[in-house]
Inverse folding.
């Protein structure tokens, strides 16, 4: 790693931390609110507490935790694979998607 | 013959195309065993064929002649229509015409619907079949349209919007063709809808009439709904009615009340969970019988009304048999709706203490009273009912009704309902709505029942619930399929399994039989899906993991199988 890179990292690190502090809480999403949304919109296909054999829909407990943008895109636009995930972009707001992502990361164990 | 054809043409309002079938052909569907022109193999929906080439003695030699891939992974509940050597079948997004002799495709008509649609489809992305008249095929689309397709070319001829997914409606049923109108109903009882039935002109798709089966303000029956509750009261009409041409009455079933939590709509809630006898010209309700007034348990009574003439208490009766989702087997007088019989046919039932034969009303049990007071209970039968959508059959030879039946309880805790677009409007705690099975017992039985007593002359149990229709034949056989893929034939007299064939995916379809050039064929769809496949893994996993394992091992993949005797 070059010295320039180290320099950048040192600068960027604290800056990111400050940004995170200043950002509105919703950008990170609240898992509690996410669970409520999940129980309203998603539970009927993905199962109570995300417990689901995978026969009806994707087993959300296996969703890759690093794939936030894939999550947002799939929930907003839907996804057609072996089965069909309906799109929710017309109903759920950007903030609500963040809450759902926060809940998804709990693997249903909230 | 010419007179008959002309007469039918006048009724239908169009010239008859050579070789196209007429209203008279539909009327004679039961007698003409070389075709299957109506859902239920006859307007009376007995799902009985007099054919006896394939019979209890030789069914062991039944072999597949062809398999037709639908190229689709959804559930296949469609009943084929067979006319002049061509079979017409539907999936959720396509209609296929198949050459019955070769099993080859003639045409496909592909349809599209918005990707949001599955949000408001509770119980499987399915279509249950088509109807035909005078060279036109009628079907519905999942997103609420009725369309006509040329039986010859597969081209769309007209399209009429019946309902909108934005209001929670969807459509899955096969239309009913009567001389007066093509008739359709709607799904959506879990999504804050208000059920209705429509009549359409077959030639143009012009809307002839609409009957809301929940009366609006000023209409008789609206007083059975407090305040505005009628607006989202359910009563979906999602299965095809039967038709008696002599009485000129259509018998159409209605579904559950919405929300399920019935304390939010105190009253009888006409006409939820009812059989309606209607005029096909106008939709006028001539009589009704309501099975479960103020039903809280999702006991849709949309299932087939089988029209047969029976001798009851020494009198010949024009009867109507209804194997009800609420666990009782009913016989009504179909001229006037008089209740003749109501007998429990499931083993486990705790929501009622019986049916009062004078009033025709169920008697609330202690369990139901507790639930109405807000307590959590386990109700038998659960929301799947003693029988779900899958049609029963009736054999005039044995006098028995053949039905797949269920013994599944469900946790039930009423909570305040919330009406939110695109979601369940039920008012029960879904996390408590788990399925229960009786230990050491099967939870699914094929039963051959006496319609007058509800007693099973025989029954056969299954590890994974059967979710398909039955068909009875003059050959002394009952056909049905398993969700684990086996298509099976049973002895109609004693339930002995005589034959089976593994079709590759699960069966939730409706078998038919017919002859081509004098040879008897049997056809059924294979392709797992539907409500049990949707919900049993989600809500039954805790109590019956071994069932879920067997069920979820079954792979999707829709196709039609056709069988004949090995020469």
């Amino acid at each position: 790693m070059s010295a320039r890179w180290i320099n950048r990292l040192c600068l960027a690190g604290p800056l990111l931390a400050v940004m995170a502090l200043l950002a509105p809480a919703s950008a990170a999403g609240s898992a509690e609110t996410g669970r409520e949304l999940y129980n309203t919109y998603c539970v009927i296909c993905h199962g109570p507490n995300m417990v689901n054999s995978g026969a009806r829909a994707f087993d959300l407990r296996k969703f890759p935790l690093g794939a936030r943008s894939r999550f947002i895109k799939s929930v907003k636009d839907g996804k057609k694979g072996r089965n069909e995930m309906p799109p929710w972009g017309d109903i759920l707001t950007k903030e609500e998607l963040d809450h759902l992502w926060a809940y998804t990361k709990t693997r249903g164990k909230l | 013959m010419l007179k008959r054809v002309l007469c039918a043409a006048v009724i239908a309002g169009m010239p008859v195309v050579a070789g196209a079938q007429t209203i008279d052909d539909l009327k004679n569907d039961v007698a003409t065993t070389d075709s299957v022109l109506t859902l239920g193999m006859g307007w009376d929906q007995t799902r009985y064929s007099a054919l006896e080439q394939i019979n209890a003695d030789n069914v062991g030699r039944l072999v597949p002649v062809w398999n037709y891939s639908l190229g689709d992974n959804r559930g296949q509940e469609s009943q084929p229509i067979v006319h002049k050597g061509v079979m017409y079948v539907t999936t959720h997004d396509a209609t296929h015409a198949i050459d019955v002799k070769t099993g080859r495709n003639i045409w496909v008509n592909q349809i599209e619907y918005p990707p949001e649609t599955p949000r408001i489809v509770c119980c499987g992305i399915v279509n249950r079949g088509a109807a035909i008249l005078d060279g036109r095929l009628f079907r519905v689309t999942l997103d609420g349209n009725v369309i006509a397709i040329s039986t010859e070319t597969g081209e769309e001829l007209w399209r009429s919007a019946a309902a909108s997914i934005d209001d929670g409606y969807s459509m899955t049923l096969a239309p009913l063709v009567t001389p007066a109108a093509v008739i359709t109903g709607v799904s959506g009882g879990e999504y804050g809808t208000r059920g209705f039935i429509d009549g359409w002109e077959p030639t143009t798709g012009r809307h002839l009439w609409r009957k809301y089966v929940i009366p609006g303000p000023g209409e008789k029956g609206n007083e059975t709904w407090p305040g505005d509750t009628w607006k989202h009261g359910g009563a979906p009409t999602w299965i095809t009615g039967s038709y008696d041409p002599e009485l000129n009455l259509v018998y159409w079933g209605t579904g559950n009340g919405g929300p399920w939590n019935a304390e939010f709509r105190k009253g009888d809630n006409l006409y939820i969970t009812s059989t309606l006898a209607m005029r096909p010209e106008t939709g006028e309700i001539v009589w009704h019988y309501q099975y479960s007034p103020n039903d809280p348990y999702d006991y849709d009574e949309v299932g087939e009304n089988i029209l047969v003439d029976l001798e009851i208490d020494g009198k010949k009766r024009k009867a109507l048999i209804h194997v009800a989702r609420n666990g009782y087997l009913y016989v009504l007088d179909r001229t006037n709706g008089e209740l003749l019989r109501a007998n429990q046919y499931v083993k486990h039932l705790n929501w009622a203490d019986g049916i009062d034969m004078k009033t025709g009303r169920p008697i609330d049990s202690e369990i139901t009273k507790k639930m109405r007071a807000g307590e959590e209970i386990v109700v038998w039968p659960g929301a799947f009912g003693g029988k779900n959508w899958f049609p029963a059959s009736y054999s005039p030879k044995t006098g028995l009704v053949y039905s797949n039946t269920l013994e599944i309880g469900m946790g039930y805790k009423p909570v305040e309902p919330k009406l939110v677009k695109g979601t369940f409007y039920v008012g029960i705690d879904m996390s408590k709505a788990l399925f229960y099975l009786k230990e050491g017992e099967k939870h699914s039985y094929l039963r051959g029942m006496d319609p007058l007593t509800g007693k099973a002359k025989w029954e056969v149990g299954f590890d994974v619930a059967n979710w398909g229709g039955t068909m009875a034949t003059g050959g002394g056989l009952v056909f049905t399929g398993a969700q684990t893929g086996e298509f099976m034939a049973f002895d109609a007299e004693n339930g002995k399994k005589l034959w089976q064939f593994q079709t590759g995916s699960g069966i939730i379809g409706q078998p038919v039989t017919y002859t081509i050039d004098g040879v008897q064929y049997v056809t059924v769809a294979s392709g797992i899906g539907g409500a049990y496949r949707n919900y049993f893994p989600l809500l039954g996993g805790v109590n019956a993991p071994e069932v879920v394992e067997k069920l979820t091992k079954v792979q999707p993949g829709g196709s039609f199988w056709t069988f004949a005797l090995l020469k």
